[in-house]
Each structure stands twice: as C-alpha cells, then as structure tokens.
Design a protein that fits this description.
This protein has 373 residues and is mainly α. The chain contains 15 helices and twelve strands. The strands form five sheets. It has a three-stranded antiparallel sheet. The relative contact order is 0.11.
Length: 373
Amino acid sequence: MEEGSGLSSNSTGEPNKRPSARQTRHQTQNTQNDSQHPPTHVHSKAGPLCLRTDNVPLEEHPRIEHHHGFTPKMENLINKEVDVIRRCESDAVIRIKKLLLMSKSGTLHVHALRLIRTELGLPEDFRDSILGKYGNDFRLVDLEIVELVNSDKNLGDALVEKWRENEYREKWLSEFETNFAFPINFPTGFKIERGFREKLKNWQRLPYVKPYEGKENVVRVRTCGGFERFEKRAVAVVHELLSLTVEKRVEVERLSHFRKDFAMEVNVRELLLKHPGIFYISTKGGTQTVFLREAYSRGCLIEPNPIYVVRRKMLDLVLLGCRNTKELKHLEEIKQESDNLIGKIGDGGTRGGDWVVPIFEPLKKDNLDDNLD
C-alpha cells in the first residue's frame, strides 16, 4: 500500500479509508452533544405517563431513557401501582368480560388484550393470574384465544346508557331524542358550518345495533341509512372500549386489533376524526392516542380511580424532577460564569465575584440529592 494515500488495510485485506482530522473533530463534537442531550424517551414498568395541558383533555408525556434506576419515591409508587392493580382484580375481570360480550363470537385474542394491558389495568401475568384463575368465567381455547364461559346479563348495558337515562329524567327529553344519543363536547374554537347542527341532530336520532345487542345481525346493509347505522355502531363500540379503560384513552393503532372481533370493518382513524365532539386524537410523542372527551375536565379525569391516582402521582414526581434538574442546571451555569469573573489578587485582597458565593452555599452535594428526590 502506498504511503500518504490515506488508505489502510483491515484483517480481510480490503482497503479502509482513514478518517480525516476534520471528520474526527466532527465525530467528537457529535459525541459530546449526545452526552449533553440524553434521549427523551421513557421505559418504565409503570407504563406511559400523562401530562396535563390547558387546551386539550390530556397529553402523553415524552418517554425518558433511565439507565440508573429509580429514586426511592418512584420505586415506592411503582410498587404501590402493582399492589393497587392486584386489589382491583375484580374490576379487571369485569372489563375483560364486557369486552368478550362485545365480541361477535364471544372470543378475543390474548395478544390484543396484552397490547392494552396497561390501559385496562391488568397485571403483567394476567394470562395466568386472571384468565387462568377465573375458570368459571374464562376458558383458553388455545394459547392465544380466550372465550367467555359465563355471561352476565347485568353487564349487557353500555356505560353511555347512564348518561342517556340522566338526560331523559333531568332534562325531560323524549326517548326518541335520547335513546341513541351520545354526549357531544366540541373543542374551543370549533367552527360550525351551515347545516351542521341539523346533520348532527339527525345522527343523534339515528338508530343502530348497540354493542351488546344482536351481534349476529351486524352487517353492512345497502339500504337507506344502512352504512350510517353501521358506522354509528362502530362509534359506540370504540366509546364503550374507552369507557372501560383506566384513563379513558388508548392508542389508535391498537384499536385495529379489535376490528374483526368487534365487527367494525371501518377505517378507525377516519371514523374518530369524523366525530371530534366525542373523541380527541393526540399526536404527542409520535403516537396517535384517542381520548374520550366527556371523561375529562381541564386536563384531569372527572371520575378518578385508584390506579389513575397512583399514575398521576408518578407523573407529578417526574415533572418535579424535570423542573428541579433544569433549575439546578441553570444555577450551575450562572456559578460557572461567575467563577470566570473571579480573578486572582494578592494575599489579603478582595476578589471580584465573592458576593455570589453565599447564594450557592445551600446547593451542596447533600442538598442537591434532597432537591432531586
């Protein structure tokens, strides 16, 4: 190999191009930047966290890589979440039974349930601790299909029926107006076009096959209003599924795993976008998550449950740590700038910048650890 050609041979004898000094400096700068700006994606047993905002129901908090373990407070909350999920086992059983009741064949794929395990408040080992434990209610047809054995007629009412009954009694509306209606809450600044109110009123009155009724007759009918009734049933199924989740939200992509079992062969995302008064789609964090609008008020769940309360405490702790970290980093930058102003003067003299020392005396190592906790 000729000298000065910038090429060297590797173990296989193939020539390798020697990186130039400019490339080496560029790679070094990228490495330093990566170390200063760690990735902002989170992996936790606690599942995805949520962040309250002012103009939307709820936003997903960005996930953060954590390579050094959790603080004692976070570990305590994680263990508490596991304990609360175990104590709410009966509620999880009811949720799974209602999902199976909505299925047209009374069966669901275990993989689909596993995808929304966190949303349903199920333990990690729910296949054994719930499906296998409650043999009188569930039966595993094979390794990945669960079947409902004992159906409960008392579970055959959708949660929206409570709202309809309240509208019928308190607002003195007729049964024709409320029997097939849904709560509508449009976002702030929503533009209502001409004729929209009349279309919405007709859609609210449109009859459809409800999620727990007549699943064998759920077909796309080529008659007047047949396709609209078919779509309205799909809206009701998604509405009921979101009502069964712990935080009234789920990723849009994971809903596609229930399309065939729930007999809603439609484009789920387009269906959700057509009804902004019922659903809200968030694209925070690069994923599309659908929220049930009626379940939230000012960014918080109207009817919180024990699992949701623990997860909110986790979120508050994460946000508190982020705020403290930013504040401490800002103080350290100020300290470094002030230290640069301190000049060496002869013995017995004064140094410019000594006035900033008392400000940083409380920020010693022990106090830093306490603030981060």
